[in-house]
Specification:
Layout: H1 2-44, H2 56-63, H3 67-90, E1 96-98, H4 101-115, E2 125-133, E3 136-144, E4 153-161, H5 167-170, E5 186-199, E6 207-210
Parallel strand pairs: 1-5, 2-4
Antiparallel strand pairs: 2-3, 4-5, 5-6
Length: 211
């Protein structure tokens, strides 16, 4: 008799707990529904009354943002600028080489873009620098993004000289007097360039992009 009463009490308590739990769940779900409805009305309706969808591209950028990759990209771009400056005497044979900031910015963006699909990211890049002068190409240096890592892909940056606009007319103003006849005048790089990508771990075709 005592056991039956205990069992009845336990069943009643369990039933009460189930009822209280179900009521709690109902309250929470009702509260969440009302909040979500309120937020959706506030967030999705603009002042004009039309619905506005969230910008998924910004969410994707935040999701794949890598501060270490960005830091490495800045270092590589600095190395590219330094290599070009050092090549002005013996390779490009000019007294001064002007490198537009916009060119370096575009190169950095292209490096991040082309390295995004690589297993080691930008760390696996081997970069060849070339400057197009007429019908010839002058090699201005080679840079390994991470010298302690075996490269996984190779990028050839083909830079161009500024040939249009007012620059050819005023470039003589930047020339310096020199007794060496090989050193001629100042050169300015164009903001446009060509990049050739070759994967070193597969036999895929070359990727050529005009930037």
């Amino acid at each position: 008799m005592h056991k039956e009463r205990s069992a009845g009490v336990c069943a009643a308590e369990a039933s009460a707990k189930r009822l209280s739990w179900s009521s709690l769940v109902q309250k929470l779900s009702h509260s969440l529904d009302s909040d979500s409805e309120g937020n959706s009305i506030r967030d999705d309706v603009s002042d004009s009354g039309s619905l506005s969808l969230p910008d998924l591209s910004t969410l994707e950028d935040d999701m794949f943002y890598d501060p270490m990759e960005e830091s490495l990209c800045k270092e590589v771009v600095q190395l590219i600028a330094r290599s070009l400056t050092e090549a002005k005497d013996c390779t490009l044979h000019c007294s001064k080489l002007l490198i537009p900031e916009k060119l370096l910015e575009h190169i950095g963006q292209e490096l991040v873009h082309l390295a995004a699909s690589e297993p080691c990211g930008l760390r696996g890049a081997l970069i060849d620098l070339c400057v197009e002068q007429g019908d010839t190409y002058k090699c201005a240096g080679q840079i390994a993004a991470d010298p302690y890592l075996v490269p996984t892909f190779q990028l050839t940056l083909v830079l161009r000289l500024e040939s249009g606009g007012i620059w050819p007319k005023i470039q003589g103003l930047f020339a310096t007097k020199s007794s060496t006849p090989v050193v001629k005048h100042a050169l300015k790089l164009s903001t446009g360039f060509r990049v050739i990508k070759r994967k070193l771990y597969s036999s895929e075709e070359l990727l050529i992009e005009e930037c």
